Amino acid sequence: MHLNNKLAIVTGGASGLGLATAKKLTESKISTVIIGRDEAKLKQAATLLGQFCSYRVFDLNDIAGIPGLISSIVNEFGTPDILVNNAGINQKKPFAEVTDEDFQRIIQTNLTSVFVLSREVVKHMAVAGSGSIVNISSMASQYGIPYVIAYTASKAAIEGMTRAMATELSPQGIRVNCVAPGFIATDMSAKALDNDLNRKQKVLSRTPMGKLGEPDDIAEAIFYLSSDAAKYVTGVILPVDGGNSIGF
After folding, report:
1. Can you give the CATH number for the domain in which 66 is found?
2. pLDDT tens, 86-141?
3. How many domains does the chain have?
4. Global pTM?
5. Would 88 be classed as within a structural domain?
């Protein structure tokens, strides 16, 4: 894949899809900086991933602190070649009960921080004349899922932003793509689906492959889009969902 000696940043890299992605990158000898809020989890992940992994403790809600975060990473490691905007939060709540604060909190974490982080990284990628950014969307952007209005709004915006970024940045050598995971077997999804068996059955019944995906499935898609194998791919929204988005 010709990714050796490159530098990647993965937000939310201490667990779930982010950890699977960081594992794939570090196994390919790509220096990877994982970002998250929980230092204990980050340390555990860095120990697991080995010499090619470093971490930064940072809350992406601290929008004003993001430029300093990227500057510190660049000063220590150099210009990032890959940015994976994976970190995100969700909330299941009836539409009429979602407060302004609820909505803004999810938009800030899932959308605004992605914009600011990408902007700061792009400043350095543009000077280098190359780079790959992979955003993470969701099936919530493909169709209407009840009780997740703020999450849905944030992920639909991520897909639009991916296309706009790709159009503007690709002439500068920076590719921008997006992976839209289906229902993946993580701790977060297990908690949600195991507590709602009707929802779980609905998910499986409309997934042609008839099963949940694995975190590695997402990691492999992100790795492909980050690599030279996808050097002519930009602005793509890639569902990795067992056919869920086209299931009947």
Report:
1. 3.40.50.720
2. 999 999 899 999 999 999 999 999 999 999 999 999 999 999 999 999 999 999 99
3. 1
4. 0.95
5. yes
